[in-house]
Fold this sequence. Notes:
By secondary structure, this protein is an alpha+beta fold. The protein has 19 helices and 20 strands.
Amino acid sequence: MMVYLGRATLFATIAILAATSGRYVFADDQPQTGATAGKPIAVLAVASVEEVLNDIAYVTETAGQGDMGKMITLLSGGYTRGVDKKRPMGLVVTIPEDEPKAFAFLPVKNLNTILEGLEEQIGKPEDAGNGVLELGGNAGNPVYVREANGWAFIAQKANDLETLPDFDPAAVVADLTKNYTIGLRINVSNIPAEMKKVAVAQLKSQFERQLAEQLDDQPEDQRALSERYMRTMLTQLTSFIEDTEHVAAGLQIDSQAKETHVDFALVARPDTKLAAQMDLLNGVTSLHGGFLTPEGAVNGHTASRMSDEDVTLYQDILKTARENALKEIESDEDIETEEARQIARDVVNALFDVAQATVAAGKVDAGATLFLSPEGRANLVAGGTVKDAKRLEETFKKLVEAAKNEPKAPKVTFDADQHSGMRFHTMSLPIEAKEEEARKLFGENLDVAIGFGDESVYVAFGPDGLATTRKLLDDSEELRSNVVPPGQFIVALGPILKFASAVKDDPVIAALAATLDNNANPDHNRIAIKAQSVENGVRYRLEVEQGVLELIGAAMKMSNRGGNDPLPDFF
């Protein structure tokens, strides 16, 4: 789990590296001559003009805005005359000597034609010598361009182009343009070691200042654990700087697969601590793979291993949390009898015993799915692996027994059902008449089923929650030997709109639902965030299927009708 927390702060690390590189001077003012000298530190790639325009046409046509796409294509013609429209373009940052240098490159058939087309915007080019042209000098912020081998190289300094980079631009961006319309890769391993040391030193200095401030706000008995947690995070960030091979991000518009996605990937250098952490996400199976069902309107699932370091840290966090919870019980004046106080102690101890046993097992495996029917029925199921689930079941029964004389205590039917090794206890909770939205979702009563197995706990809400859980358990049994992604979260707009149409008479919602039903692939209406393990790393992907683009286009058309059909609240 800590690897997820640490990776969330990776952007801060990249920002530190970028800020450091902008003013870095090598030790003793000597030029950098190591193995990383002149290698690309960062690469930005853009697919060919032809491909970009095709992608724009696909997106605009799909969204019902084809005329806009045609206009963009028409207007681009004036700016792309002289450009080779079949080759990519991009930008590369290197550190050949003592400071970063950036080169943009553009595939050209005729540079003069390009410059003539831009003359009104940037003026006439000026000869800067050695085949270099100065552009936009009259505006006070010139750039420089030099043509060689069918490429126009662009830089902010004329002397940067005196010696052109010794790489083939198309080859440098090939792996990015093969997979993305627009892609960015930062080769952290090519950043000079001394620069990384400066970044780490700045990170640690800033950390120490912030640590002191935050610990001042912490209770004294929690400061040691808080400091340990934060220093673990610092170690993670330092590892990202020192052990990362590269990070990459990209946008791909895929008309063949009928989807658009954005990727973010991190790859560690082999045989490093970071690579070992990434390996914890690889080859993981799940006892609850049924939550990956495509039938859900919203579903999420995670399955990954924890490092020994994370296990120890979270055990200590749970230990401190237990101690604080028990102290609150002792000081709680609302607990009227010693018997009630002892029950509270027993419940807290049982919950934390189970939590610590689960953490000690070193694996996270859980999921949740919301099912929405076209008839307006909602069911939510959540569950996961819990060590010593029997202890949790016993605690649940004790709580029910202790509350049986309370006037509003629900009636629980124990052992109402058994399936796939799970024992289910059910109850029905009345929903007050003023809770109109809840009643639309679940009816006058909220049916609840709680299931306990040897190492699993499931909770289901809704009129068909128990039957839905039984199916999820069966599906999970079939998938338990399959390797699953570390995590995913999926929202299907089709079922949501159909459900909304059933519970609310709204012509706009009905029209949007019909938009998805009438397209060529009515099931392609999902937005998904998925994590996938790759060699020595992890990739996160945001996917948007074609039906979502069509829905956006339909919503835009309705919005442009002058307010006659206002969009529903969720737009």
